Amino acid sequence: MTLIVRINNVLEQFRHEMGVFNNEMQQFRNETNQRLKNLEISNRTSVSRFDSQSEDEGEIETPLMPCYLIAP
Question: How far apart are CA 56 and CA 22, in angstroms?
Answer without folding.
Answer: 51
